[in-house]
Amino acid sequence: MSTYIRIFGEIPGYPEGWAPPTGKRAELREAGIHAHNVAGISGTADEGADAIVLNGGYPDDDDRGLLIIYTGHGGQDSSTKKQIADQDLKDSGNAALVKSQLDSLPVRVIRGYKEKSPHAPAKGYRYDGLYRVVRHWFKTRNDGFRVCQFLMVKIDSPYDVPDPDYPDDIFTEDNSSASQVPVGPVRRTKTTVNKANRRATVVKEVKALHTNLCQVCGNTVELPSGPSSQAAHIQALGVPHNGPDVIENILCLCPNDHLRFDNGAFYLTDNLEVVNALDGKIGRPLRTHPEHKIGTEYVRYHRACWVKVP
Amino acid sequence: MSTYIRIFGEIPGYPEGWAPPTGKRAELREAGIHAHNVAGISGTADEGADAIVLNGGYPDDDDRGLLIIYTGHGGQDSSTKKQIADQDLKDSGNAALVKSQLDSLPVRVIRGYKEKSPHAPAKGYRYDGLYRVVRHWFKTRNDGFRVCQFLMVKIDSPYDVPDPDYPDDIFTEDNSSASQVPVGPVRRTKTTVNKANRRATVVKEVKALHTNLCQVCGNTVELPSGPSSQAAHIQALGVPHNGPDVIENILCLCPNDHLRFDNGAFYLTDNLEVVNALDGKIGRPLRTHPEHKIGTEYVRYHRACWVKVP
Q: Which side of chain A, N or C, has fewer Cβ within a 10 Å radius?
């Protein structure tokens, strides 16, 4: 078997829409598009993921075309394909996709004929372009097992926006039906007017109450323009979380703790203690303000994304 | 004069392309589009900027249509309009635009007939849609005075991308001629292939050499997927800085120090001391690695963006 050279981005000579002539996955590997013949994720924790295959391997996938909720790797019985264990981020494929998320690496998406999706090819495989990993989280399935999921959006599509927290309406417009996401451009400037204004107000309010001090570490990032902080949603905005854009669902955090919170490095108890998810230790309580009530339902939602028994 | 209610985003009833019938700025105010009759920036340091007018007030403006380099406010003699002093971020208009940058607020752009730009209307004013502030810096003019500049891109345009450091080719393709930026969509996925791959390699390299420890504070952001850091370009990528994507132009930073560095809260001396720009104090020296040479030319370029005598 030839050496696989991991390239990030499109492979010269294999444009979007390319399908292996014989319909075999080995051809994807030969072309340098995807490293493996069975595993869905091509990549390593160290390098990141360069490609994924959607081919019906995990029933929790939700393929909406330009937007994909992709299920991570692991926990299946190799012969029956039944879920028999939880997935985790120690799995090198899952860790690779997190790396691609954090480093904004482009991920090639290949759809196979077995994927139960209107966007899948009738036969064989098809390279469907470059996607970006927006975020990840854990979902508890009905059978109790936990799978890691990744929100991926096609690069250059209307879903590929600078601040994924900003245009939540393009994500939430269609929460009724998974397959109804329009494929054409979505005019974000028209639909987000009221939300942009409400967002500006709520963000200003939460930062003012905490005078830009991080509710976790108590520090502020001092810039020449003044002290700076970020408004972090507890139950994330947009598909599939659809958290509301209200102050009860927002924390005032520094960028470091924002990154940690959004990626499950810490979570909150109902009493607003800060728990380090890496060692389970309870740290300083969350800094609070009497006029800033935090919704327990949002805290529980976030916790369920990151710990099995919330 | 009626009260101006500051709204972020499009004003209902005043779509993109709308022009005041009498061609007067007072009508913009009446419509709630822009607060002032003379000043270019509508906004406050506390709330952010909701709108700007480009109307030839500052010769350093560079209007490329979907991408604008906008000059901040201040330092002009009120009668002669000659630059007689430096601009700074204490000016409430400039601070408002920084706030809009940090909070990703949409900014309405109005072009006036006096702007020397192929995109300006022949007469009167025209509302030209929502833009995002990507970054700001200081430019030293030929007369020695410093002006604050803001890179703004039209929301939903090909220039409006999640990671402004990522698709630098769409910014750098036309560094020869300011007015040649195409107005139609730019196919980023095709043009960025090689850069995406080179970026992945150089980012991986710098993070590995520093084992994800921030070169300023020495900390790493621990996530469930592993330690995390960011690759920060010293001379920024893209218009108008066009820094190269090489390891000599990159620092390994935590998100907090990345934010500080990109917004001029600290800079480096030629000896790689870390200087706090807010009080001028020299802190701990930059953490270095013998295999990670840092280019003095990039350090000097960054410094010139933030301090008058670098």
A: N
